Structures are given as C-alpha cells and as structure tokens.
Amino acid sequence: MIILVTEDNPQSLYLLEKYFTARGHTVWSATNGREGLDLLNTRKLPDVVVSDALMPLMDGFELCSSIRRDPRFHALPFVLYTATYTAESDERFALSIGVDRFVVKPVEPDRLLTIVIEVVAEVKTRPPREVVRTQLADDQLQEYTRMVLVKLEDKLLDLSKANAALSASEESVRTLNAKLVTTVARLEAEIEEHRRSDELLRMAQQAGGIGCWESNTQGAVHWTDEARTLLGYSGASNPSTLADFIRDITPDDRDRATEILGKLSETTAKALNLEVRFQKAGHPQTKHLHLRGALFPGNVGQAPRWLGIIQDISARKEAEARRQLLEQQLFRSQKMEALGNLAGGIAHDFNNILTAILGHADLLRYGFEQIPPSNPCHSSVAEITNAGQRAREIIKQILTFSRRQPIERRTLVFSKVVEDSLRLVRSTIGKNNKLLYSAATDRSASANESQIQQVLLNLCTNAAQAMAPNGGTITIALTPLDIETPQGGSRSSLKPGAYVRLAVNDTGPGMEPDVLEHIFEPFYTTKTATEGTGLGLAVVHGIVQSHEGMIGVESTPGKGTTFTLYFPAVQAITTPVNVSKNNGHPDGDGQTVLIIDDEPSVARTCAQLLEKLNYRPTAVTDPIQARDLFDRNPQAFAAVIVDFLMPRVTGLDLAKTFWTKRPDLPIILVAGFGAQMDATRARAEGFHEFLTKPFTTTTLSNALAGALKAKPAVAQ
C-alpha cells in the first residue's frame, strides 16, 4: 500500500515513515499540504493520505478541500490527525469537508495503521464520492474562520500569560543570575565526578570482560568500545546488525542464537538471556559469551529499544569444565574403589577355596605315590593343580586391575612381565587390530608388575583408538640398550648404564607437532568425551618416571606413532631352592604348629599338609579359642600360622598377644589379598614369613622351615 504522509514535525514524520515501511508499505513524505499536492500531481495515485492538521503554507483542512475538488483524486481516502483541533466542532467540520477519519493525537503507530487500513477498506465498499465543484460553502468557510480565530485567541491568551509570567520572573532571573556562578561551578564538579565514574565503570568493564550493547526491534545494533574490544572488532568490521554478530557464532550454537535473537523484534519479548560460543573469522580462539538484555519502551512517538550487556565468560566455562571433569574422575575413582572392595571380597573367598583345592591336590599326589605313573589318577591330579593355578592367576589379574595389590617394586625379568601383560592387552584392543611382539633381551628391571601392565594397556588402547575404525598393527619390541656416555637430544635425561628399551608402535594417522607438545599434560586430549579424559598418557609418564626411567615419542602425520620407554636394568636375583630328598619339600622334625584360620577347609587342608611334611599340627577356626589354647601353655608350640582377616580379632592383634608371652615365637601371617597387608609390612610388624593365598605345599613348607630356622623352636 502507498501512503502519502504530510507532517511538519520531523520526528513524527520519521517515526511514521519507519513504522509503515517496516510493515511493508511505501511512504511518500511531505512537510506541508502544498508539498503533498505537488506529489499528487507528479506521481501515480497513492492508496491513502495521512495528514497532520496544523502545518505551514497549507494545513490539513486546506489539503483535504483541494483533494476533494480535483476529479483526479477526489475519492482518495483521507485520514486527518491532530493535537491542536480536538473539539467536537473541529471533528464535525473536518468530516463536512471530506475527511474520512478524524484522529486525535497522541496515537500509537500501530493504532494509526489499523485506522488507515480500515478507512481504505471502507472507501472501497461505499458509493463513489461526488466531486466538490466549488470552494468551501459560506457556512463551511465561516466555521473554518471561527476555528482559526479560536485558535488565534487561545494563542494570544497563552502569549499574554507568558508575557505576564516573563515580567514576573525578571526579578527571579536577576536573582538567579547571582547564583549562576555557584551553580555552574557545582555542575562542573558534578560533571567531573560523572566523568571519573564513567572512567571507573569502563575500567571495571574491561577487567570483568563486560561490554554494553543497544539494539532496535529491527536488528540494528550498537556496541560500546568495551564490547567491540571483547568481540575482537575494530573500525569498519564492527557488526552493525544482529545478523552480522550471529555469523561469527560457532555452528553448534548458531541456530539456537538465531531463534532467540530473532525474537528481539517482537515486543512481547521482555528479556534476553543467552550463552553462545563465538569465534570471529580469522581468530583461532573460541570465546564463551553471555548476553543479557531487557526491552525498554520508547517515549511518545519513539520505538522501544533493547539495552543489555555482553560478558566474556570463557574463564568461568573453562573452570566449570575442569570441575566437571574432576567430578567425573572422582566418580570413576569411587567406582573403582567399590569395584576393588568387591574384588577383594571375592578374591578372599576364592583364595580360601583355591587353597583347599590345591592343598588337597597335593594330598592326593602324596596318596598316589604307590600308584604307577601311567595311572590316570596322576594326570587328573595334575589337571586339578593346573586349573587351580590358572584360577589363581585370574584372581591376581582381578586384584591388579582393581588396584587391590600393593604398589611395590621387585626385580623382574622384563620380558616375562610384558608377555604376561599382553594377555590382557590382546583382549582389549579389538579383533581388527594385529599385535606383534618381539623380545631380544632377558634383562631384569626393578618394577611393579601391575604398573607396567597399566603402561602397556594405556599405550595399546590409545593406539587402537587412533587406528579406529579400520584397525591396524601394533608392534611391541623389547631390546637392550647400553649407554656409556651422557646422551644428548631426546635421551639427555638417561644416565650411563644398562637399560631395557620398550617400543610401542602403531600404524595410525600420527600426530601434528603442536599435539606432541602437550600429550603428557594431564587432561589434555584430542578424544571425544566418550573416548577418554586425557589422563592416560599423563599416568604413563608418571609411572615411567617413578621407575627412574624415561619416555619419548616420535610421530609423523599419516605414518603412525612410536612411544619408546627406557627402564634401568638390574642384576637378576637367583634364589636357591632347598628341597628334601624324597618329596621335593623341606620336611619337619615333628614340631608342633598351631594353625588359626576361620575358614575350616583351609585350616584342615593346611593341617593335613603339615602332617605329610612331618609336623604335628593343631588347627583352630576360632581366634578366641586359639588365644585361650595358647594362654594355657605358651611353650607348647614351635610356630604359629595365622590368617590375617578373621572375625572379632585380626591375625596381627592375635600375634601381638602371643608375643607378649613368647617374644621369640615364629609366626607366619597368611592373607587372602594384599590390600591391607603385604610382605614388607608383615616383616615390619615382626612376622617371620608372609604367605598369600592360595599357597602351594612348596611355599608353605619353605616358609615354615625358614621361620623355624630363623627362630629355633623352644618346645618340641
């Protein structure tokens, strides 16, 4: 629709132009009636005329009268709005000269547009208007003259009152002039204070990463200097519309931001609260931004505007992400602790069962000494023993994985540790990955077996994930290395000496140099949230350093990655084996041994084995009963074998009670798993030997013989 607007007030004319245009209409603007007639004479016919009443050169009444006399546009819809002629007589006169609708200011733009649309529709449906052939009739002219005179009288009266007020205020003006200097000085001080406050506010905004913005309902936006600096804009690159700003929002947040910011054009929306990730084109850094704002209604004749702040919350988001990651790690740690407790309980029960099974297998072997070796009984006993040994290894792996085994290092043949670890590795890397292993050294190292297992598991798991989904080849090589002089480059931290070198290579995509710089940093990861936390290689690095070793990495994009680990080699320890002539175990000499274990099958099995080894055992399943038995005759026993975990009294507490009466009494401590007790602590507490269930007959006989040898028996 084409709307001719005649209005001498620039602000009102601008407002109507913008409002009507924003609603899809075309606006012709004129500042008085004469300009309006010129537009009608030089352009095609508009759909409607909207005119102010009081204007210079030609007012709205004259404009309407002229239009009605011209046959070219006498039927043109005409809306007159006024803030001056507001009496009922004024409205009657306007309607009498051909005005279709008389509107009294103030009126909201949306209401005025509704009236205009109604008038256009009414004109189309009513009979054609006749052309006014003459000037205003005498009665109309008289009415128009009367209206003008009334307004002139009102203006003269207002002018008279103003002159009277001016005369009355001359004395006040003279008095005020005397105070002007003081007032100006005070205002200057206030201005300076405001300037200082503005400067402090600007500094506070810069320190807090806060800027301000203002936007109209059409999407034009203005940013303060602090906001432009925060966004990384300068000069002509400043985004002048919300659409420009949205283009630099990251793709994951862009649709949501478009939907929310698009509602700023709706006056029904009153507040804005939006968090987005923002990356200005050409800038590598992604920022987290928080936009808040509120809609402020404009003054009369002015459109509402949005005012708000924008804040860089990247540091807060990073802290929240780190806290969330730590909470996840704590949750996983708690799950592992719960798993460890469960595994420990299961291992304790299973180890008791396995102790009885393996012990009775040995007892059967004793009983079959007179049976020919070809008899199937021998192979059956061997199968029982082998199955028990495999079950023991499974329990050991469960305890190792759940961290219920103590972290202690001992001298190990490194190739044996790697071979044992690879059984677990093969089950975790997937069937589409090939694992190759070669060992060119039998050197030993002081190491913790479970930690070396964790190192290999982490490295191979990372390699398998890097080669997903197509898979590839993981090559593990164990070689010796001798360093005679201090090294440079990547091996500068290695001291001269003998080393075991472990290399883990994959055929994955490799890593860029900027990734290699950070791979050993905690929480650094290129994986998704479901693939890992970024702690795996940091843990590997820490374990290698705790073993006084070194780890290096080489990677070429497209050609794979190789991790090389160096562990100091140590001299292997050879332990002599003392066996008897007949059955392969050190035999006793009839010594009395007190066996205390709350599991009856373990106590009975241990007693039966000791009888075969020429000892005189006494088995007790109640620790309180055992204490009473010992108290009656402390010299009756040459040695004691006691379980660590028992109801009411632990093996440690019971041993301390015995030692108060027999300080020289050899006591062997037995435990189902090593979470709360290990060999080092057991010896520190005074125990002569420490056994872990399930133990073999050989282990039991060697431990008892060693304890009796260290502390000769007092009673036989």
Structure notes:
- The protein has 20 helices and 22 strands.
- The protein folds into four domains: about 1-135, Rossmann fold (3-Layer(aba) Sandwich), CATH 3.40.50.2300; about 210-310, Beta-Lactamase (2-Layer Sandwich); about 405-570, Histidine kinase-like ATPase, C-terminal domain (Heat Shock Protein 90), CATH 3.30.565.10; about 590-710, Rossmann fold (3-Layer(aba) Sandwich), CATH 3.40.50.
- Helix 4 (about 90-95) links the parallel strand 4 and strand 5.
- The chain is elongated.
- The strands form four sheets. Strands 11, 12, 13, 14, 15, 16 and 17 form a seven-stranded mixed beta sheet that branches. A five-stranded parallel beta sheet has the order 2-1-3-4-5, with helices on both faces. It has a five-stranded antiparallel beta sheet with strand order 7-6-10-9-8, with helices on both faces.
- With about 725 residues, the chain is an alpha/beta fold.
- Helices cover about 45% and strands about 20% of the residues.
- Helix 10 crosses helix 16 (about 600-610).
Give the termini separation. 122 Å
What summary fits the major beta sheet?
7 strands, mixed
Domain unit count: 4
- Give the structural class: alpha/beta
Strand percent estimate: 15-25%
What is the share of helical residues?
Answer: 40-55%
Silhouette: elongated
- What's the CATH first level of the largest domain? Alpha Beta
